[in-house]
């Protein structure tokens, strides 16, 4: 009962702290939104479109073809200088300058060059040029047909262009079909389904670490010393604080899971597997937080070191970017921290439709991390409370 | 001035005795920048390993393979040949190639007007851009083939005698598409990941100085230090300048350390060292202004700590310190311009892409100045409202 009284006091104090609530709920959700909006559209080339000054119908048609092309995410720019600046700042992969005299040149029987600006050293731009070339070639095919028909059968270019468009609709071109061979991604799904589970992992850990400052603060005020004089067993204090931090970590997890599901449409996969994963991760965070609370000398130390180490561990563990993107040795090093195993488990659940059995190896490692951290935390806190009564 | 420097030196000594201050402003940003530099050292290059299966063995299929190996895609595309579609499919499935193109038997015949067999692209969900590239190159090539077929069909539909189809097809095969896309390179430097995230992480952690400064003020107030200083012949202005100067020096030192380490150890590049320096100074001034605002808003050490934390994370989130601004949506990029760190990062981006002088830092300096002006005005109003009557 004494342990639960300690738990209740700690939970109540945290819930009344508006700053703590900001870090528990508002900040993770805000970052989920920003990342969710940003991490998408990686299967498209970002292309800036600078239309011709006074475009004729052919230039307009080419612009529309580019805007509608699958695989291209286009953005219009009225000014070529603005588009160049966006390209330089890496906001775009390429910029298409639709020639002002396109209509006149084509009608005069001359060849037209559509300039595509790219970063010379970045190969993404050159790949984007290939996508633009495919659209330009499809447009040019109709122009070639109209020009050829005019030469061979007479009539006007515009009349034969209309014939080419009709013929294009009715003829059977050589098609390019796509077959997806490997439908199981090694990444989390893009958008909110990426940002929500990774930020759950990152923030539950950081918040739990930050919670260690409350333990240091309570030590500093002498509350533990007075409680021990009451007498309250040291074990009850350790258990009470640990359960309080676990409850807070679980509440934060449930809030993020709920917001993700309701507001962002994140499917969390197999419910049983997801629940076990959330619970184990909360235990890992609790262990780290209580350990920080036992080891640090001042709350400021926890505030300074907690977020910094939480972010570094999160980066190493693949919360900021998928570990399959980094060099092999860094990915291996990343699996020295628990975050990587949690992100792997979420990837299996969300991208491979995995179940509890599929993530058992990850859960096993997380359980080992949780057991080690909780044991160390309990020992360290017990030692701190008994050997230095005033702190 | 001697008193100002004495206050500044005392504050700096006090701060540097706290090891957590070293961690947050010097160690953490360098460590995180190093991680980012290591993680993305080879990621600026886009590569596509594409498999090709030529079941046609005719000249048209060979032309497609040549298009993949053309000079425009040299250094981007690496082609591996497979004997049959099954082998190519397995290679994509195993991740040995990002995508594979299978040219069907009879492809060359279809160019001459025979039945049109589809060309197949095998792709994998994790390599969308590479698959898009494989499709685009194939479609570009096929478009020329289709253009010839369409030319003959249009000529016939427009009145050319249908008995001349063979002659028309031969003539159409000699045509060249009248519209071609041609790449042209910009002359600027490519932006390196570390040139952005070095200063970005430096700024993020330097913003924590707002919390140190504001908390320190309330600690000294509660301990009576401020009253004792006020009793001495030292004006409030001198005290304020001394404390501001210490926050400025501390912030600037943090930014200098991360930019120098990013430059020397991780190869960050900016076109104009003077531009880097003025952006660092401007950010340090912004930190001082924000510290004053938090002190004016808060009533206790605890409140100051909370307000400072919220300010730091809100600015970092909006300003683009967590995500590469260029990957964000235009709306998020616009929001970043309401923050000093967002402006500074724009300046660092421009300096990192070879822009120099006022063209790179002019707008960011004005943006940061406007932000600081607004913060100082709000602080002044708050202090006036709170002054005991």
Automatic annotation (TrEMBL), chain A:
Protein topology in the membrane: Multi-pass membrane protein
Every ABC transmembrane type-2 domain range: 161-384
InterPro entries: ABC-2_transporter_component, ABC2_TM, ABC2_TM_bact-type
Residues annotated as transmembrane: 20-39, 199-217, 246-266, 272-296, 308-330, 356-381
Localization terms from the record: Cell membrane
Protein known as: ABC transporter permease
Family: Belongs to the ABC-2 integral membrane protein family.
Keywords for this protein: Cell membrane, Membrane, Transmembrane, Transmembrane helix, Transport
From TrEMBL, chain B:
Domain ABC-2 type transporter transmembrane, first and last residues per copy: 20-379
Membrane topology (UniProt): Multi-pass membrane protein
Keywords assigned by UniProt, alphabetized: Cell membrane, Membrane, Transmembrane, Transmembrane helix
Main location: membrane
Subcellular locations according to the entry: Cell membrane
Leader sequence segment: none
TM annotation in the entry: 21-40, 193-218, 247-268, 274-298, 310-332, 358-383
InterPro entries, A to Z: ABC-2_transporter_component, ABC2_TM
Gene3D superfamilies, per database record: abc type-2 transporter like domain
Cellular component terms (Gene Ontology): plasma membrane
Molecular function per GO: ABC-type transporter activity
Pfam families attached to this UniProt entry: ABC2_membrane_3
UniProt-listed PANTHER family: MEMBRANE COMPONENT OF ABC TRANSPORTER YHHJ-RELATED, TRANSPORT PERMEASE PROTEIN
Protein name as it appears in the record: ABC transporter permease
Organism of this sequence: Streptomyces roseirectus
């Amino acid at each position: 009962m004494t342990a639960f009284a300690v738990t209740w006091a700690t939970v109540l104090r945290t819930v009344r702290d508006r700053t703590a609530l900001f870090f528990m709920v508002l900040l993770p959700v805000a970052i989920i939104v920003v990342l969710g909006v940003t991490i998408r559209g990686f299967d498209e080339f970002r292309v800036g479109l600078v239309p011709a000054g006074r475009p004729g119908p052919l230039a307009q048609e080419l612009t529309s073809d580019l805007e509608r092309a699958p695989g291209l995410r286009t953005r219009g720019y009225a000014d070529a200088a603005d588009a160049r600046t966006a390209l330089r700042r890496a906001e775009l992969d390429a910029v298409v300058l639709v020639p002002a005299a396109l209509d006149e040149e084509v009608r005069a029987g001359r060849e037209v060059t559509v300039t595509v600006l790219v970063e010379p050293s970045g190969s993404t731009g050159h790949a984007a040029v290939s996508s633009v070339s495919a659209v330009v070639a499809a447009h040019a095919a109709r122009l070639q047909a109209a020009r050829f028909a005019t030469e061979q059968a007479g009539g006007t270019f515009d009349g034969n262009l209309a014939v080419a468009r009709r013929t294009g609709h009715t003829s059977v071109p050589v098609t390019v079909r796509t077959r997806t061979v490997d439908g199981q991604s090694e990444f989390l799904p893009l958008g909110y389904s990426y940002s929500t589970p990774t930020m759950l992992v990152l923030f539950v850990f950081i918040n739990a670490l930050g919670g260690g400052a409350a333990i240091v603060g309570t030590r500093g005020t002498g509350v533990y010393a007075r409680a021990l004089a009451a007498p309250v067993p040291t074990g009850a204090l350790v258990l009470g604080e640990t359960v309080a931090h676990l409850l807070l970590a679980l509440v934060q997890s449930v809030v993020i899971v709920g917001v993700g599901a309701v507001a962002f449409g994140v499917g969390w996969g197999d419910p049983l597997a997801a629940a076990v994963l959330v619970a184990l991760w909360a235990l890992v965070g609790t262990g780290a937080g209580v350990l920080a609370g036992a080891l640090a000398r001042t709350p400021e130390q926890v505030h300074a070191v907690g977020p910094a180490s939480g972010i570094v561990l999160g980066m190493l563990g693949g919360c900021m970017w998928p570990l399959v993107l980094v060099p092999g040795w860094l990915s291996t090093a990343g699996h020295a921290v628990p975050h990587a195993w949690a992100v792997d488990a979420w990837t299996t659940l969300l991208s491979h439709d995995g179940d509890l059995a599929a993530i058992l190896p990850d859960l096993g490692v997380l359980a080992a991390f949780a057991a080690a951290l909780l044991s160390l935390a309990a020992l360290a806190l017990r030692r701190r409370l008994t050997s230095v009564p005033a702190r | 001035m001697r008193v100002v420097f004495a206050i500044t030196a005392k504050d700096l000594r006090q701060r540097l005795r706290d090891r957590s201050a070293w961690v947050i402003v010097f160690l953490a940003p360098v460590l995180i920048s190093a991680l980012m530099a290591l993680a993305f050292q080879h990621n600026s290059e886009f590569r596509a390993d594409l498999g090709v299966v030529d079941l046609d063995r005719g000249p048209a299929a060979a032309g497609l393979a040549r298009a993949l190996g053309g000079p425009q895609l040299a250094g981007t595309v690496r082609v591996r040949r497979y004997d049959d579609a099954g082998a190519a499919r397995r290679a994509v499935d195993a991740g040995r190639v990002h995508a594979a193109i299978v040219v069907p038997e009879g492809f060359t015949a279809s160019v001459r007007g025979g039945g049109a067999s589809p060309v197949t692209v095998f792709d994998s969900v994790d390599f969308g851009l590479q698959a898009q590239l494989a499709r685009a190159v194939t479609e570009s090539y096929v478009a020329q083939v289709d253009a010839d077929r369409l030319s003959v069909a249009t000529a016939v539909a427009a009145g050319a005698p249908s008995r001349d189809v063979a002659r028309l097809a031969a003539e159409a095969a000699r045509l060249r598409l009248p519209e071609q896309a041609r790449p042209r390179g910009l002359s600027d430097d490519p932006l390196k990941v570390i040139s952005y995230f070095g200063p970005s992480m430096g700024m993020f952690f330097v913003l924590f100085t707002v919390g140190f400064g504001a908390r320190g003020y309330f600690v000294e107030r509660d301990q009576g230090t401020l009253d004792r200083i006020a009793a001495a012949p030292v004006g409030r202005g001198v005290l304020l300048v001394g404390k501001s100067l210490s926050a400025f020096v501390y912030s600037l030192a943090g930014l200098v350390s991360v930019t120098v380490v990013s430059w020397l150890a991780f190869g960050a590049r900016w076109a104009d060292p003077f531009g880097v320096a003025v952006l660092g100074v401007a950010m340090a001034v912004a930190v001082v202004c924000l510290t004053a605002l938090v002190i004016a808003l808060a009533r206790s050490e605890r409140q100051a700590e909370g307000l400072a934390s919220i300010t730091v994370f809100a600015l970092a989130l909006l300003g683009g310190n967590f995500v590469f601004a260029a990957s964000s949506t235009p709306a998020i990029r616009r929001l970043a311009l309401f923050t000093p760190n967002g402006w500074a990062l724009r300046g660092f981006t421009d300096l990192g892409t070879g822009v120099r002088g006022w063209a790179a830092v002019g707008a960011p300096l004005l943006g940061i100045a406007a932000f600081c002006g607004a913060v100082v005005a709000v602080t002044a109003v708050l202090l006036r409202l709170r002054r005991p009557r």
